[in-house]
Amino acid sequence: MSDTYMLEATGLTRRYGGFAALNNVSFKLRQGEIRGLIGSNGAGKSTCMDVLTGRGRNQQGTVCLNGQDISRLSERERRAVGLSRSFQKTNIFPELGIRQQVQLAARKAEFDNTEEVLAELSLTAIADRTASDVSYGDQRRVDLALALVGKPKLLLLDEPAAGLTIEESLAMARHLRNLAERWKLTILLVEHDMEVIFAICDRLTVLHLGEVLTEGLPDEVRANPEVIRAYLGSTFA
Amino acid sequence: MSNLSMAAAAPKVRTSTTPPVLVVVGIAVALVGFVLPWLGLPRNILSLLTSASMTAILATGVGFLVRQAGFSSFGHAAFYGGAAYLLVLMSVYTGLSGEAVVLLAPVIATLAAFALSFILLRTQGVAFSMLSLAIAQALFELMMRWRDLANGEDGLRMRLPREIFGLKLSFFQKADTMFLVSWSALIIIIVGLVLLSRSHFGTLTLAIKNNEERARFIGFRTLMPRAAIIALSGLIASIGGTLFALYNGYITPGLLHWSLSGEALIIAIIGGTRSVWGPALGAFLFVILRDFAGNYTTHWQSIVGLVLIAVVILLPSGASGAVSSLVNRIRGGRDV
What we know:
The complex is a heterodimer of chains A (237) and B (336).
Chain A: E1 5-16, E2 19-30, E3 34-38, H1 45-53, E4 60-65, E5 68-69, H2 75-80, E6 83-85, H3 98-107, H4 114-120, H5 136-148, E7 154-158, H6 166-183, E8 186-190, H7 194-200, E9 203-208, E10 211-216, H8 218-223, H9 225-232
Parallel strand pairs in A: 3-8, 3-9, 6-7, 7-8
Antiparallel strand pairs in A: 1-2, 1-4, 4-5, 9-10
Helix pairs in contact in A: 3-5, 6-7
Chain B: H1 20-35, H2 43-69, H3 77-93, H4 98-120, H5 126-145, H6 147-150, E1 156-157, E2 163-164, E3 167-168, H7 175-197, H8 200-210, H9 212-217, H10 223-248, E4 250-251, H11 258-271, H12 278-294, H13 300-314, H14 318-331
Antiparallel strand pairs in B: 1-4, 2-3
Helix pairs in contact in B: 2-7, 2-10, 2-11, 2-12, 3-4, 3-5, 3-10, 4-10, 7-10, 11-12, 11-14, 12-13, 12-14
InterPro entries (chain A): ABC_AA/LPS_Transport, ABC_transporter-like_ATP-bd, ABC_transporter-like_CS, BCA_ABC_TP_C, P-loop_NTPase
GO molecular function, one term (chain A): ATP binding
Keywords (chain A): ATP-binding, Nucleotide-binding, Transport
C-alpha cells in the first residue's frame, strides 16, 4: 500500500430537510487500499457512496481524488478522472449484449481492456448473450465489469455480494482481493456480509446515524465495544 | 483466471445481428417495390401503395423513436404536417425556388424537432406523450384559426414551378412515378437507420434508453444523443410530410391532427418496434386493412381496433416479430 492518498473525503454533509443522512464525515484511503464502509441500515453508507460519485451532491465538504478536488464534477466527469462504481441494485443495460456494453464503457475509459475484464469475471463464454438473458449472478458480474473496465483509480462497490450465496460471496471476495493486488486498485466497499468484509478489507470505517463511529484495522473494529453495541452484535466480535 | 465459482448457465445461442435470410428477404421486397409500377396494377392500387409508402415513412420515424429512445410520441403529425405546411406556405408566400422549398421544409421541421426535444426531454413516459400531443395540437389550432395565413380548415394549394429538380412537377403527382420516389425514400431511410442502429451511436442511444443513469456513470453525456434521436425521428416524419405535400399539392389541418400521430403509433405497434423495418411493414398492412375494411363498413376503425388488440395480445413483437420468428423457424430455431 502506498503512502499517498487516493481518496480524501473531508466533512461530507448531506441533509434531507432536517434529517442529516451524512454529518461531517471524513476519511482517507491510501493508494491500493481496500476499505470497508460498514454500518446498520440508515447509517449513511449508500448516501456516502452517492456523494462520492456525484449521484447526490454534498452540501458541505470536499472529495479529492489523487489530490484533485472533484467535489463539483458530475458523475460523468468523475468517471473520466478515474472514479468508478457498481450499484447495490444491478444497474446494467438489459437489451445490450454483455461484450457490447463492456466495450461501450471502455470507450470512455483510458484504455480498452474489455476482453481482460470479461475473462477476469468469467464472462467470456456468455459475452455475446443479451444481458437480460443471463442469471442474476451473471448480471451482478456484468455490473462489476462495467465498473472495472479501463482499470479505474478508485472503485466504489455497493454491496457487490447482495443476493449471492455464501460460497459465491466468499469466492467473489477472494477474487476482488486478488484483482486489487494485481491491478493496483483502490477499493471502497460497502457490504453487509461481514464474512466478505473481514476476508478482504485492509481497514474499516464504521458509520452510525450519518457519522463516523470509528475507523481502524478489522480486528480493532471487531473488538470495539461501541461497534459491537451499534452494529456487529456478538456474532462477529 | 477467475476463482469465481459462480457457474454460468450454458450459453443460449442468440445473435444480435440480422440473419442473412432476413436481409435477402428485405432486398427482394425492396426490388419488388421498384418493379411494381411496371406490373400494370390498377391506378387506385398504385395510389394506395404510394400513400402507404408515405405513411410508412412517418411510422418508421415514430417507431424508431420508440425503439431507440423509448418515447411514445403522440405528436409526430407536427413534423409530418409541419413540413407539408412549410412546403406549401413557402411555395405560396416566398419567392424561393421549388428545389429550395422542397429541401428547406424538412430541414426547418427537423430543426424545430431538435429545439423542441430540449423541452420534451424534461419529461418522460406519459408526460412525454402528452406534451408531444399538446405541441402538435397547438400547431393544428394555429393553422385552423389563422385563416389569413393558411386558409383554415379549407386548406391551401401548393404553388410550385412546373419543373423541379429537372423533372416535371407532374412526375411527383402521378401515382406510378411518385410511388418510386416515396419507395426509394423509404428504403434509403430504413437502410440508413439499420446502419445507424449498429453504429456506436446506435449502441449508445439504446444504452441510454435502457439505463440513462448507468450511461452517465460510465462516462457518457445523455442529453444530446436523446435530442439527436428526436430530431432524426422528426426528420423522417418531415420527409414523409414533404412527399405528401408534393404528391397531393394540397394541405389541410388534418395533417397536424393528433389522430394522425395516434395512427402512426398504432401502425408502429402493429408492425413492431423491435426492428427498424417493422413500422413500415405495419403501414402497408394498415393501409391495406383500412382499404379492405372500408369496402365493407364505414366503421372500419373498429376493425382496426380489433386488429390492434389481437396484435398486442398475440404478437407482442408485432408483425415484424412474427416474420422474424417464422424465418428463424424455417432456418432451424435460432432466436433473434
